[in-house]
Amino acid sequence: MPLLRSFLLLASLATLPAMADEQAFYHITAQQCSVIDSIPVFTEELRPTQSAGNYRIELLFPEYRELTSTERALIPTLRSKLGTPTAPNIKQTILVDRGMPVISVSFTPFVYQNGKWKYVSSCQLRAVPVSSAPLSTRGNTNADERWTTRVRTCTREMG
Which residue among 2, 6, 55, 134 has its CA within the 20 to 30 Å range from the CA of 83? Predict the structure, then answer.
């Protein structure tokens, strides 16, 4: 029995970093942003626990703050390069490390809301696996309809 408890404790501790990474809030400061093409860009790596070919990145619970005087000086550049985005434009690059996906997520933490430019000061990022099913099988169909669609497709191709 003590061996089983030790194993369960070790197993729960082994999964803790992955779960903590998924649930982490990121506090975004100017020092964490690198300047790319004269615009600050925040970059973070996500390590999702589910392996998939594609991911949709969700920005959850964003908190905004007013711009500082230094950041206000960037407004003409932001407007010319970004337009007036109401939400951050998230870019992602998927890499593989030891058979597990690593997603490099980057975005400019400036948004235009309610007639003012604001800075995304903190948020939660989540990588959601996107289905890699063929387009014909997506939508509001149940499993039986998808199966019959596939069988009909195969029959047409053969005969």
Answer: 55
